[in-house]
Amino acid sequence: MNMIAEFYSGYSMGYAILKIFFMVAIGYILYTKRLVKKDVTKGLSNILIWVCIPALIFTKITSAFDPYAFPKWWVLPICSIGMSLVGLGLGHIFQRPMKSFSASREFTSSCAFQNSGYLPMTLVVFACSGDMRDKLLVYIFLFIMGFNIFAWSFLPAYLSKDIRRNFRLSAILNPPVIATGVSIAWVFILGEGKVHNVIYEPLMMLGNATFPLALIVLGSYLAEYRPFKSENWKALGICLLTKLIFLPAVVFILIKYLPLEESLKFFIMLEAIMPVAVSLIVIGQFAKADNKFFSGAIFYSHLLAIVTIPMWLLLLRNS
Questions:
Q1: How far is CA 95 from CA 83, 235, 281, in A?
Q2: Strand partners of residue 276
Q3: pTM above 0.70, yes or no
Q4: Domain ranges of the chain
Q5: What is the CA radius of gyration of the chain?
Q6: pLDDT at position 166, please?
């Protein structure tokens, strides 16, 4: 497949992940040097949830989403949600034998939700050019739409111990979900790019701060929870095996039978091989979940992805 041949580059992938580790290291150092404390980390998480992530969602959807140019745009959000459901199912199957494991929902969530934005976006920018790059970037924005709707509506309710006992609508109607709904409605009513610069440019600047800020928060949590000294390496290892090997294998088989064009099949597989979503650490803080497990899953999955992403791309290229 020509697209895979052009995209495949271990250098590009390694370079993108090294940039992630560099940003995480900044957060780790800030916390260990007591320049950022626990309350500050929590405050940064709140800024992400209430300001930066909604701003990112709004600016990306209103500027890049044209439903009339992509009449089957709904396929990718549905595929995004479907992939997460498959990951949740696999995670549930593999965590069931671990009877005494307390972070079972964090385990299944880590199996289901991948770094669907920044890392594939970075790989696309470094490895592709021209029309193929533009097409894949639009695919990413549409895929993230499904990710945001499902992750930010489902996970807070799924993870929160309080909500398990006493459901609250605010767990589903949180700022990122509201921003997604408003953005989609905006595009359908007013059209793509119909946001005045007085509103758009400040929101764009806030949105662009999302990923570096999220990585600094992740580094702070790594310093706080020390997942390098995991209390349950077995659970973490099974989670990483499920996320990086079993889930991509299932998706690899499924896409062979989906009536989609080759570029879409390649993109769906690209998303399936991504490591654990960095945003889980933010959702975990919001839902008061076990962020120690999330920190370990995110860190080690990105580390192992340096090997597993080229492995899967090589398999795709030769299939």
A1: 18, 8, 20
A2: 114
A3: yes
A4: 2-318
A5: 19
A6: 44
